[in-house]
Specification:
Elements (H helix, E strand, L loop, with lengths): L1 H15 L2 E10 L3 E9 L2 H10 L16 H16 L3 E11 L4 H21 L3 E7 L6 E12 H25 L6
Parallel strand pairs: 3-4
Antiparallel strand pairs: 1-2, 1-5, 3-5
Helix pairs in contact: 1-5, 3-5
C-alpha cells in the first residue's frame, strides 16, 4: 500500500515542476488579431502555436450565468493573485510603424517610444519597444508579443486555493441565510 502512494507522490512532485511556456501576440494592421499558444518545455512550439492560431467561430451556445457571482469572483481573484506571484516574464516585444499627417507629431511619438525602450531595457533586458516612423503615409501597424512561464504545480495550487475560497464564500452565504422555523 505504501509503494503506490510513494509512486503517486513522486509523480506529482515531478509533474508539479514542469515549466509551461505561454506565448501571446496582439497585432493591429487595420484589423485587430490576437493569438495565444502554450507548450511544456519548448518555447518555440508555444510561439508557433500562437502565430498559427486562427480565430474560431463561436456557436450559439447556451449562455452560462453563475449562481453565486460574488463568491466566484472572489475565488477567481484569489487564484489569479496567487498565480501572478509565480509568473516569469521571458520576453515582451512591441514592434510597429506609425505615420501621422503631421511629420513632427510622428517624430515625437517615435522619439518617446525609443526613450521608453531605453528605460525598459535599463530595468529589464526582456522587454523591447521598437516603433519606426512612416513619414510617407498616415498609417499604423503594431504588434505586441511576449512569453511568460510558470510551473504546473503553481497552477494546481492556485486552483486549489480558488476552490477553497469559493467553498468558504458559499459557506458564509449559507450561514447568513436565516432558517425558517416550521
Amino acid at each position: 500500500m505504501a509503494l503506490p502512494l510513494t509512486v503517486t507522490a513522486v509523480a506529482l512532485f515531478y509533474l508539479s515542476a514542469i515549466p509551461i511556456q505561454i506565448a501571446f501576440f496582439l497585432r493591429y494592421d487595420g484589423a485587430l488579431r490576437f493569438g495565444a499558444g502554450f507548450s511544456a518545455f519548448e518555447p518555440r512550439r508555444a510561439r508557433r502555436r500562437a502565430r498559427t492560431a486562427s480565430p474560431k467561430k463561436q456557436s450559439a451556445a447556451k449562455k452560462w450565468t453563475p449562481k453565486h457571482p460574488i463568491a466566484l469572483l472572489r475565488a477567481a481573484l484569489k487564484a489569479f493573485f496567487s498565480l501572478s506571484r509565480h509568473l516569469k516574464l521571458l520576453s515582451l516585444t512591441m514592434d510597429g510603424t506609425v505615420g501621422l499627417p503631421d511629420a513632427a507629431a510622428t517624430a515625437l511619438i517615435c522619439g518617446a517610444a525609443n526613450s521608453l525602450d531605453a528605460a525598459l531595457f535599463a530595468v529589464t533586458r526582456r522587454a523591447r519597444v521598437s516603433l519606426r516612423p512612416d513619414f510617407a503615409a498616415a498609417s499604423a501597424h503594431a504588434e505586441l508579443s511576449g512569453m511568460i512561464s510558470l510551473r504546473v504545480g503553481h497552477i494546481m495550487l492556485a486552483a486549489l486555493l480558488g476552490a477553497w475560497e469559493y467553498g468558504l464564500g458559499r459557506l458564509k452565504t449559507w450561514k447568513s441565510i436565516p432558517s425558517k422555523a416550521s
